[in-house]
Write a structure and sequence with these properties.
Structural class of chain A: mainly alpha
Number of strands of chain B: 2
Strand order of the largest sheet of chain B: 1-2
Strand order of the largest sheet of chain A: 1-2
Largest sheet of chain B: 2 strands, antiparallel
Helix content of chain A: over 70%
Order of helices and strands of chain A: HHEEHHHHHH
CATH class of chain A: Mainly Alpha
Structural class of chain B: mainly alpha
Distance between the termini of chain B: 40 Å
Strand content of chain B: under 5%
Radius of gyration of chain B: 23 Å
Oligomer: heterodimer
Chain lengths: ~220, ~250
Amino acid sequence: MHIMEGYLPVGHALFWAAASLPVVIHGGRKIIRLIEEKPQAKMLLAASGAYVFVLSALKLPSVTGSCSHPTGTGLAASLFGPSVTAVLGSIVLLFQALLLAHGGLTTLGANIFSMAIAGPFVAYGLYRGLTRAGFSMAIAVFFAAMFGDLVTYCVTALQLALAFPDPVSGVFGAAVKFLAVFAPTQAPLAISEGLLTVVVMNLLTRYSADELAVLDKATGRA
Amino acid sequence: MRLIDRTAQTNRWRYRPTAEKLLLAVLAILVSLMSRSPLVEAAILALMTGLTLVGARVPKAVFLSASIVPLGFILTGLFAQILVLDFTGPLPRLSLAGPEVIASAGFLLLRGTAALSALLFLALTTPLNRIIALLERLGLNAHIADIALLMFRMVWLLLDCLESGERALKNRLGHSTYRGLIRSHGLLLAALLPRVLSRARRMENGLAARGYEGRLTFLGAEDTAKPAPLLAITAAFAGLLAVGFAA
């Protein structure tokens, strides 16, 4: 769920850009260090970024008769780690703004915060936490991807509520309204994305272990 | 997805300097965000739509098609804004907001549409790779710019793989049930990742054989930006902003 161009007031747009910048800079420095040590990682990172972008071209069923695309935050965070996902996600969001008109330039900071930072970090934390707690990989991946998607949507609703509080019930009331308005699309989508990510990760761990090892090296997680 | 890029590569202003188009769009968005005057918003909407449709000769159907999703979001958000939620009673009560809130939601609709027209102007007249090249000249790290440029080139190849795979799975009734759809999409994405990585390795080998030293250089075909038009654009929007504050 992208916040569209011109929707956020200037102060809010600047605040969310400032909040996202340190994480993106940290991830960017990590990527630059990696490329300087291993120049071949550049191609793999670009291929990974293109893969994340193409995820958004896939249509998933949401409420009856409507379709939406997955955020890919859970899958990307599981494959590339959250700091690399923050940078690749930022580039993907810029691409989505300029190739699809989804999102915008002044809302890029807010969209990066919800989709490239909050969602991936929660997904990655859940994935690591659940696997360490002894849950199977399928359970960990499902909850990581589903909550990664839901957190993205909740953060976006909160960003909108902070910008446009309800005249009577304030930010809380506005958050309830924005969550309710977008819930019919986002809640089924989160479940579909959780299931899809389980299928993908199951197949990748079974048949593409070599590729996953290469990715771990390329993204500095090995 | 290809519609916007195809139009950006083929419109009448394709070869105009990227800096001019980027400055025009960014200033239009900033002025529309800072202005409090509906007249200024309407002027920006008319100006940017006019430049896109008449100046760059982008087809109306393309412009409208690219506007549908963002306008849908703006209208859905508007719906949440014109309703008031009251928790003071025993049950939450939803009612229509007063005229002031409705007027401010209407202004937001106008502002969102004006800013969207500026974004669409940029997206529909300027190829994304030229914007990234300009950002690199303005200070974006060269490695990050290279990753973005390579991503831009790989996206179209991947999209072809994704679409042909999706078509094949659909024709084999892979989309006939919800369970089948999730499994088909999963198979497709799992098959796509090894292909992407193998393509990246082949590209790396190819570049290494051609003396790759860590930097990729791409040629640009557009005109060079001159200071006079850039100053004129800045002055025009500064004037528009001043008019907005005075009104």
